[in-house]
Every structure is written in structure tokens, then in C-alpha cells.
């Protein structure tokens, strides 16, 4: 892989030295180098490009070459009616189709700025109530001279007068002033002590200084201590106007003057993610969300509601960082807001929502625009009495095929509008014709191959037996089409250590037969007939085999394993059977046996914090890249279950998993009695998942912008086709868009995502998702329509891609700078004039800083030798395929006070903020982040609660060496277990439960998840980060 340098582009309209834009340097580097030459042997079907696109003919080149080739950037036909598509009406045109619930609180109906609409302000005012600062929030600002926060902004400002001692009295939780101490966002040079004292600036060692933020004019005295949170703001200058930012030299640095001893900011006064989540729930939960309005911001991922497709894809399939795109690229650059969509094409739809309709045009196949190849959708405008239609994406006027003709009604809408899903819905499927199939032949149903590492340690710890036992039941639930009786998926079995064993399990055999392949340098498949079989037909032989495998290898002393030849063998078997499929590989050690892909132990922590740190995230040999390419070309999706006791080089072994759309599961130091349940749940879940195979995704856009970067469990062989050997219901691809022209505010920004894939029963289909966004020349509209959770998903994936090519410090710096820049742009262009010392956040991005800070503290971005390289590589990999809901809970875990739970009520207590301050000795708290779950027990937790949950008399009697709770039968136990299972149900990974007693050692692990606090391994507290960002904003504005 080539190492592209950091290509800094001036990120801002006024270039700042040392500030790089996040996007340009981070774009698509990973995997991109392979684009330079089309690999031999890759023969993909034409894909969503359709039959007109020659196989493999997409030339490498600048990202827009593909778009031009397909005419996406065709000229707009001027003078064409403004609202061209009959689908979702624009917001200002909503009539009877208005949503059945009030507009979201952050989209006030009044145009901006309108001092009257202050829902955000009121909300914030509530938050800030504790501060008792009269003019703290815009809602309370009526009597405050000189402080005019905008109605849409969350405004944080300092005390209005020089001294407000009644507000700033240090209380028990308040931070003492800390001269010269800088709590950096980067790594701290040494571990701060554990415990609540973490948050106290006086007790922890000074962190590394915040990168590249020298304040010109910063007074030499106390400097800028971020812990002095109360200082944003500083003493106000009455009447100061933002329009003369130069009037505030040094910004926040001034505020630490001797006249005002700095105090800690009350954590209750800064924006709370919990409050944002609860507010959205209270206004939108339980309602029906219809997708009929262009540019409508959906409910948060944390809000449960019923979604009804009325012309735009459900937010379950597509979420966007903003639902209003800037009309020009200059605006986009000015704001630095990423324009991205997070697409989860196979998202699970709850039972009470309508599944996708299947459209079948027979041999004619889907109707598509002649020029840009977009599929028929609600954005096509029928004209000339229904004989022609104009493409909403490229404006090309196409003939309506005769079989598809229909008359128009008085408003120009086809009479069959509501009878055809592709005319009235945002999402639907097409039956694909042979043109869309590999070699123009209908595909075979997929196959699953189970490949078990039978080396010494796996046999000894009982894992081999556990897997074999479980397979007997899990194979009963292979996925099948609803109308089918049995699954069409065939299965095969391989075991291996340093050689491979294939098994013939043909149904007419009395005994399974084993064939050994010792030549791992050029692995081949020794049998075709009898290797991949129908499970139901061969059940007896398969069960016989699964009983025998643990016996056959019971006395094996083989410690060494191979890995790449295993993947190769599985892929070759699928290729020989001419079908796509999944490999399930159960592997435990670094593959050190002599074979291709042999790995050496390179857990080299000396590289941490050097320019070479990025190599730890890259595979150590290029064999894995070649293997990945072959797997993708053959529709072979690799699921990897790792059971490491030491370093296994996840970065190398995981590559093929990540880029084939597979899932990585890692169980460190696997112990059967503790980890079996987690592993088996993952295995069952994975085998049963609905998956699309041999998939290729194409994202088309309307004129003026295009998809430029793709992040996910994907493979890119050119700049436009997103290849996924497999894509399951949990995998999301994040797509970034860039302008290449001006956008039309009337027609909006249209996006169509088409996924061509093979179903579990071997049908070739197209899944289409469409969404329409608004465009505006007003920056305020962008910020109003943002979605913080989607922004974080984008930033996480782009940063985790960047770590492959950039020094980590650079990546962290870019994130911080871009955060400050987005907020500064809002401040400068959208907020009402106010003192620069106020921190003003757009309402829709109110909690962006706390999430961003949590991302910065993630172990992937923290250069810390204490964290295993494998752990960082695996977390990086997991995040890359996450959807918005997954990244939300991953970066801001759910923390629920169990002791306040009402066992008689259906509802759960509201979650609380992830800070140690929120815990109490008398409480019991449940924390979940999507990968792990913790039950934290305070030392004074009520005995009746302990009895109810654990069936033991007291705290000291609780056994923490378990990973599940006993079934006690008490109401507490039932409710808690139900709660845990409800949280688990929505998540793709089985979360292992850890029971943590307050003040016992494992608490250290738990505390890492309290993301509002200062990080155990470095990383700022929320308050500190907010101060740092504020300082940076002031610098940008001055
Ligand atoms: Zn078109």
C-alpha cells in the first residue's frame, strides 16, 4: 500500500497555519492505492451500472471521472419547472401531507433569525437554571444588555459582570484554579490517578499541552487553564460586538486574570446528551414519522418511533450529517460541515413497519435513465402526457418504455402512482435480470463454510468441542426465504492447524471422510462433490462429523497454525462451486507456521507516538490485500472469530474480514465458563442474519455534487463501485459528498443508492434507496438541519481511516480544529452579535463537543502503550462498519440507574450522564456501549436490591466472577434482566457483562466508559474540551 502524504488543503476560507481540513487528506487512502491498476482476475458483473457498463471497465482516475462518464453532471435544463419531482414536496409546500407531529424542536417554523422562536433557548435555559445566571441562556436574556444570543443557538456565556461570586463559589465538586496546567486532548505523559480526583486539575499530572494552540497575546501568568471552565466566559465587555473580533485580543486567555479567580464550571450547565435524547423522545417517540418532506430531519436514533415511507428512504436505511446541503462549494468550505450519508442498505425493519416491496418488470428489467443509469424513482418527472420522463438526477429526458406507459392526472402524476412502489416510495427492490448476473447466468444460492482451528490450545480449552456442539443446533436456523421450507444455503466443514482437513459429508455416506491438504503454499480443494451440502439432507453425516472432530484432534500437540491458506481454501471452494458465501473461521493464534501470510509478532509498542505508529494498523504483508481482492471478486465474505491469548495481529488478519463485509469477533483469553454465552450468541446471531451476497453498491446524486469517499466494511476497486462480498443487516457505509457545481435550491439534492446483490436463496436483486435533501444559500439552514449522531459517525470513520496514513497527533488535531471551525463559522455567520467570550453552539450540534471528545479519547486515537495494539485495531475495524445508532452508544454509553427503577412500571429510568459524579455509593448502575456491559455496584447499595438481583445477603457476598445474572425470580431481577436483554436486542454484538464493585480493581476498566470525565489514559474531560474548543473558536474569530 502506498503511503500518500498528508495533502493539506487550506480548510478555511482564511487559511490558518497548521490547520488542515479533515476531509482532503483523509480521503479514501485506505484501499485506494490498489486502484492504480485493475487487478487481474476480477470479473464483476456490471452491477448497478447495468449492462451498458462494460465489465471492469471503469478506469481509475479522478473521482469525478466516473460521474462524468455516466453523465451525472449533465447540464440542467434551464427553465424547467422548479419542483420537478412529484414525490416528496418541499418543506414550504407541505400541505395535507404534513407530518402528523410537530416539527422538531430544532427546526423552528419561523425563519432564522427570529427572536421569538426560542424553544432551544428555553431548553437551554432549563439546563442552565442551576447556574442562576440571569442572562445565561437566550431564553433568559431579555433583560441582559449586550447579550443577545440567537434563538437557535445554545448559548454559553460567562458571568455578565466582572464578579458573580454567588455563582462561582467553589462547592464540593468545583475545581480549584490551576495555574499553568493544561489538560491536553492528546496523550498524557503519565497516567493520572484513578478516582474522582481525575477530574481535579490539582491532583492529576499536567497533561501534554494541547497541540498547536499557542495564543498570541496570551499573558504569561496563569496562561490558559482549561479546567477553569467557568471562564467561558470571562468577564464580559458590555456592548462588545462580534463584528469587531479584534477587540478581544487573546480571547479566553484574558479571563484568567487575577481579578477573577477561575472556578470550575458547573457540569449541569453544559449541554447534556441525556437531555437532548430525552427531549427528542418526549416530542417524537411513539409517533409515526412519515418521510414525505424533503430535507426533514428525522427523530434521533435513540428515539423509538414508527417510520412510514412516503417517498424518501427511512432513516433506518439512510441518515445524513445535514438534511440541507449548502448550495455552493464555497459555503461548504466555509462551514467545514461534512456532507455525508450513512447508508445501512439491509437495515432490519421492525415487524410493525412495512418490508420492502419487490418490483418485477420481467425480462424488461428495471426502468433506468439512459444517461446516468439512475433507477426509476419518485424523483423522475413524467411529461408529455406520460410518454417521456425527465431524470431528477441528470435532467435527461427519456422515453417511457411502452410496457411502462401510463396516463397522467391533472397534476401531472401518473395514474398508477400509488400502485407502483418505485414511483411513490423511497425504498424498494427490483428483480434483476440476467444482465445483472455474473456471466449472465443466474447465481447459485450461497454457501457457508465453517473452518475450525484445531491446534492444541483450542482443543484443550474446550473451544473445539463447544463449536461443534453448537453447530448442530445453529445449522437448524440457517436463514431462508419466508415462503421456503428449508434454507437454500449449503454448508461445508474444514479443520486446520498447520495443515488443512476437508470433510466429505455427502448424504449417502455412512461416515464422513477426511482429506488432508498439506501443501499450504498452494492450497487446493481436494473434493467438490460432497463438500458443500444441504444441511437437512446430510444432517446425520454432519452430526457424526461434529461429534468426531473433538475426538480426532484430542491428542494433537500441534501449536502452530496457518491462516491465509485457510481463507484461500474457503474462497477456492466457493469459486469451484460457483457460488458466493461466507466463511466462519474460528482462530486462536498468530499464524506462525511456514505458509503464505505467515506473521511475526510485531506488537511493537516502541512505535507508539512515532510517525510509524500508523503501520500498526496496516497488515504486515501484502498477501492479505491480494487475498482480500480475490475474496471480493468471488463473493466470499469472511467472518472471523478470534480467541487470542496474546498478540495475533488483528490488523493483518482482520483486513480480509473488514474488506469483504465480514464481522470480526474477538474474545480475549477465552474461558469457557465465562465467555461461552457471549460467543455463542454472536455465532447464532451471525449465522441467522439476513445477508446480501456478492453485492455492489452505487450512489448516484443530482447535478452539482457527487459521492467522493466511502467508509465501511467495503472494497473499492475504482472510485464509484462499492463492492461488498457480503453485506448484512448491521453494516453501514458512510458516504461523503462534495460539490462540483452549484446546487439548485428549488430541486434540492437528490441521492439514490442502488445495491445489486444475491439473496440467501440465490436470486439476483436490486435494492434501491432514495432520499431528497434541501439546499440553501443560508449557512444557518445547514446548521439547523444537522444531525450530531451522524456527524460523529462520519468523523469516527474518516479519522479511523486516516490513522492508516497519518500520524495520530495529526488526526486528533484535525478533529479538534474542524470542531472549532464548524462552531466558529456558525458563531460568525449565524449567531446574533454577542461577546466573543460566549460559547454559542448551534442547537442541533449542542452535544457535538462531548461526543467529539469521546471520539478523541477512543483507544484507536490515543497513542498509549498501555492499550494493546490488537485491541485498537479491532475497535477500529468494528467502528468502520457501524451505523449511527451503534456509534452513538459506542461513543456515549448508556448509563442507567437501576436502583431508581420502578419494578411495577413498564418504563425505564432515564439514563444519566457518563460521569463519575453521577454515580452514588448507594446506587446500582448499568452501563452499555454496544460491545460491553457493566453492572456497577456502590458500596452502600441497598441490601434488598442486592438480594433481589443476586440472591445474596450483602455487597461482600456478591460474586463478580460471572458474566450473567442469576435468575432470582424477584421483580428486581426480572426487570433488570429484561432491561439488559432489551438493550442487547438492538445491538449487533453480544455484550459481555462485567460486574464491578465500587473501589475494587475492575472499576478501572469501567471508569474508561465515563466519557465526560478525564480519560484514564489521557484525554480531556468534557468541561476541559469545551473550554479548549472555545479557546480555539475565539482564536479563529479574532
Ligand atoms: Zn439521469
TrEMBL record:
Source domain of life: Eukaryota
Pfam families the record matches: Gelsolin, Sec23_BS, Sec23_helical, Sec23_trunk, zf-Sec23_Sec24
Compositional bias (Polar residues): 66-81
Keyword Membrane: yes
Domain Sec23/Sec24 helical intervals: 788-887
Record's compositionally biased regions (Pro residues): 99-112, 213-225
Gene3D superfamilies given in the database record: beta-sandwich domain of Sec23/24, Sec23/Sec24 helical domain, Severin, von Willebrand factor, type A domain, Zn-finger domain of Sec23/24
Topology relative to the membrane: Peripheral membrane protein
Cytoplasm found in the keyword field: yes
Residues of the Zinc finger Sec23/Sec24-type domain: 366-404
Gene Ontology CC terms: COPII vesicle coat; cytosol; endoplasmic reticulum exit site; endoplasmic reticulum membrane
Domain Sec23/Sec24 beta-sandwich: 692-776
Keywords linked to the UniProt accession: Cytoplasm, Cytoplasmic vesicle, Endoplasmic reticulum, ER-Golgi transport, Membrane, Metal-binding, Phosphoprotein, Protein transport, Transport, Zinc
Domain Sec23/Sec24 trunk per the UniProt entry, residue ranges: 443-686
Record-level GO BP terms: COPII-coated vesicle cargo loading; intracellular protein transport
GO MF terms held by the record: SNARE binding; zinc ion binding
Domain Gelsolin-like: 907-976
Disordered: annotated segments: 1-121, 151-272
Localization in the cell: Cytoplasm, Cytosol; Cytoplasmic vesicle, COPII-coated vesicle membrane; Endoplasmic reticulum membrane
Similarity section: Belongs to the SEC23/SEC24 family. SEC24 subfamily.
Protein name, entry field: Protein transport protein Sec24D
Gene that this sequence comes from: SEC24D
Amino acid at each position: 500500500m502506498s503511503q500518500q502524504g498528508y495533502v493539506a488543503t487550506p480548510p478555511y476560507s482564511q487559511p490558518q497555519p497548521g490547520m488542515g481540513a479533515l476531509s482532503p487528506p483523509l480521503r479514501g487512502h485506505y484501499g485506494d492505492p490498489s486502484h492504480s491498476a485493475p487487478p487481474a482476475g476480477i470479473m464483476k458483473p456490471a452491477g448497478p451500472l447495468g449492462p451498458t457498463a462494460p465489465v471492469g471497465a471503469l478506469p481509475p482516475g479522478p473521482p469525478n471521472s466516473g460521474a462524468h462518464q455516466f453523465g451525472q453532471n449533465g447540464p440542467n435544463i434551464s427553465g424547467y419547472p422548479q419542483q420537478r419531482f412529484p414525490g416528496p414536496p418541499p418543506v414550504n409546500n407541505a400541505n395535507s401531507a404534513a407530518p402528523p407531529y410537530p416539527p422538531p424542536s430544532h427546526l423552528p417554523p419561523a425563519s432564522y433569525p427570529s427572536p421569538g422562536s426560542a424553544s432551544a433557548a428555553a431548553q437551554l435555559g432549563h439546563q442552565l437554571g442551576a447556574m442562576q445566571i440571569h442572562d445565561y441562556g437566550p431564553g433568559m436574556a431579555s433583560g441582559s444588555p449586550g447579550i443577545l444570543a440567537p434563538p437557535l443557538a445554545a448559548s454559553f456565556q460567562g458571568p455578565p459582570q466582572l464578579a458573580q461570586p454567588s455563582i462561582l463559589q467553589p462547592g464540593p465538586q468545583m475545581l480549584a484554579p490551576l495555574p499553568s496546567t493544561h489538560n491536553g486532548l492528546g496523550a498524557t505523559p503519565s497516567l493520572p490517578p484513578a478516582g474522582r480526583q481525575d477530574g481535579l486539575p490539582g491532583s492529576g499530572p499536567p497533561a501534554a499541552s494541547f497541540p498547536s494552540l499557542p495564543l498570541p497575546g496570551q499573558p504569561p501568568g496563569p496562561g490558559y487553564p482549561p479546567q477553569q471552565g467557568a471562564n467561558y466566559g470571562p468577564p464580559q465587555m458590555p456592548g462588545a460586538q462580534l463584528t469587531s473580533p479584534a477587540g478581544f485580543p487573546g480571547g479566553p486567555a484574558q479571563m484568567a486574570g487575577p481579578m477573577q479567580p477561575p472556578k470550575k464550571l458547573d457540569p449541569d450547565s453544559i449541554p447534556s446528551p441525556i437531555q437532548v435524547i430525552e427531549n427528542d423522545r418526549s416530542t417524537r417517540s411513539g409517533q409515526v414519522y412519515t418521510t414525505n418532506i424533503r430535507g426533514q430531519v428525522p427523530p434521533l436514533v435513540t428515539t423509538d418511533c414508527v417510520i412510514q415511507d412516503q417517498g424518501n428512504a427511512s432513516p433506518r436505511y439512510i441518515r445524513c450529517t445535514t438534511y440541507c446541503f449548502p448550495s455552493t462549494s464555497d459555503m461548504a468550505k466555509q462551514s467545514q460541515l461534512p456532507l455525508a450519508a450513512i447508508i445501512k442498505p439491509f437495515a432490519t425493519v421492525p415487524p410493525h413497519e412495512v418490508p420492502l416491496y419487490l418490483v418485477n418488470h420481467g425480462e424488461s428489467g428495471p426502468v433506468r435513465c439512459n444517461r446516468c443509469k439512475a433507477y426509476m424513482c419518485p424523483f423522475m418527472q413524467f411529461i408529455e402526457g406520460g410518454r417521456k420522463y425527465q431524470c431528477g438526477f441528470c435532467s435527461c429526458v427519456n422515453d417511457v418504455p411502452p410496457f411502462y406507459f401510463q396516463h397522467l392526472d391533472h397534476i401531472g402524476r401518473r395514474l398508477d402512482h400509488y400502485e407502483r412502489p418505485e414511483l411513490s416510495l423511497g425504498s424498494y427492490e427490483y428483480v434483476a435480470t440476467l444482465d445483472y448476473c455474473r456471466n449472465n447466468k443466474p447465481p447459485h444460492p450461497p454457501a457457508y463454510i465453517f473452518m475450525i482451528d484445531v491446534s492444541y490450545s483450542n482443543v484443550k480449552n474446550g473451544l473445539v468441542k463447544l463449536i461443534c456442539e453448537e453447530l448442530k443446533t445453529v445449522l437448524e436456523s440457517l436463514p431462508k426465504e419466508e415462503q421456503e421450507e428449508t434454507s437454500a444455503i449449503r454448508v461445508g466443514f474444514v479443520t486446520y492447524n498447520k495443515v488443512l482437513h476437508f470433510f466429505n459429508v455427502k448424504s449417502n455416506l455412512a461416515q464422513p471422510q477426511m482429506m488432508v491438504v498439506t501443501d499450504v503454499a498452494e492450497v487446493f480443494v481436494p473434493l467438490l462433490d460432497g463438500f458443500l451440502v444441504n444441511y437437512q439432507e446430510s444432517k446425520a453425516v454432519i452430526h457424526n462429523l461434529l461429534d468426531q472432530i473433538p475426538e480426532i484432534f484430542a491428542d494433537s500437540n500441534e501449536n502452530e497454525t496457518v491462516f491465509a491458506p485457510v481463507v484461500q481454501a474457503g474462497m477456492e471452494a466457493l469459486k469451484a462451486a460457483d457460488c458466493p458465501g461466507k466463511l466462519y473461521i474460528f482462530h486462536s493464534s498468530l499464524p506462525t507456521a511456514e505458509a503464505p501470510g505467515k506473521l511475526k509478532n510485531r506488537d511493537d509498542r516502541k512505535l507508539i507516538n512515532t510517525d510509524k505508529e500508523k503501520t500498526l494498523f496496516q497488515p504486515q504483508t501484502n498477501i492479505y490485500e491480494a487475498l482480500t481482492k480475490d475474496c471480493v471478486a468471488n463473493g466470499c465474505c469472511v467472518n472471523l472469530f478470534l480467541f487470542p491469548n496474546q498478540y495475533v495481529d488483528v490488523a493483518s488478519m482482520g483486513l480480509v474480514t473488514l474488506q469483504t463485509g465480514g464481522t470480526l469477533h474477538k474474545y480475549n483469553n477465552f474461558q469457557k465458563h465465562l465467555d461461552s454465552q457471549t460467543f455463542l450468541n454472536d455465532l447464532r446471531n451471525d449465522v441467522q442474519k439476513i445477508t446480501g451476497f456478492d453485492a455492489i453498491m452505487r450512489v448516484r446524486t443530482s447535478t452539482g455534487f457527487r459521492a467522493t469517499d466511502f467508509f465501511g466494511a467495503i472494497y473499492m476497486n475504482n472510485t464509484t463501485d462499492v463492492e461488498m462480498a457480503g453485506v448484512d443487516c448491521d453494516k453501514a457505509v458512510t458516504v461523503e459528498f462534495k460539490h462540483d457545481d452549484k446546487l439548485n435550491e428549488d430541486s434540492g439534492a437528490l441521492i439514490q443508492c442502488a445495491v445489486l446483490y444475491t439473496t440467501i436463496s440465490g436470486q439476483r436483486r436490486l435494492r434501491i434507496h432514495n432520499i431528497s435533501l434541501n439546499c440553501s444559500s443560508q449557512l444557518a439552514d445547514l446548521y439547523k438541519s444537522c444531525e450530531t449522531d451522524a456527524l460523529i459517525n462520519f468523523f469516527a470513520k474518516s479519522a479511523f481511516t486516516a490513522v492508516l496514513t497519518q500520524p495520530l497527533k495529526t488526526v486528533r488535531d484535525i478533529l479538534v480544529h474542524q470542531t472549532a471551525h464548524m462552531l466558529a463559522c456558525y458563531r460568525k455567520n449565524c449567531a446574533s452579535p454577542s461577546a466573543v467570550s460566549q460559547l454559542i453552539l448551534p442547537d442541533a450540534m449542542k452535544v457535538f463537543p462531548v461526543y467529539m471528545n469521546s471520539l478523541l479519547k477512543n483507544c484507536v486515537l490515543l497513542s498509549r502503550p498501555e492499550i494493546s495494539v490488537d485491541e485498537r485495531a479491532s475497535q477500529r475495524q468494528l467502528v468502520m462498519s457501524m451505523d449511527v445508532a451503534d456509534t452513538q452508544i459506542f461513543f456515549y454509553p448508556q448509563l442507567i440507574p437501576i436502583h431508581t427503577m420502578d419494578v411495577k412500571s413498564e418504563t425505564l429510568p432515564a439514563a444519566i450522564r457518563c460521569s463519575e459524579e453521577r454515580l452514588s455509593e448507594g446506587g446500582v448502575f448499568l452501563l452499555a456501549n454496544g460491545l460491553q456491559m457493566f453492572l456497577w455496584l456502590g458500596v452502600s447499595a441497598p441490601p434488598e436490591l442486592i438480594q433481589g438481583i443476586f440472591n445474596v445477603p450483602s455487597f461482600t457476598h456478591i460474586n463478580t466472577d460471572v458474566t450473567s445474572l442469576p435468575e432470582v425470580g424477584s421483580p428486581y431481577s426480572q426487570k433488570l434482566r429484561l432491561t439488559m436483554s432489551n438493550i442487547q436486542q438492538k445491538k449487533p454484538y453480544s455484550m459481555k457483562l462485567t460486574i464491578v464493585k465500587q473501589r475494587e480493581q475492575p472499576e478501572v476498566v469501567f471508569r474508561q466508559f465515563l466519557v465526560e470525565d478525564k480519560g484514564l489514559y489521557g484525554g480531556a474531560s468534557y468541561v476541559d474540551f469545551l473550554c479548549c474548543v472555545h479557546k480555539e473558536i475565539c482564536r479563529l474569530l479574532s
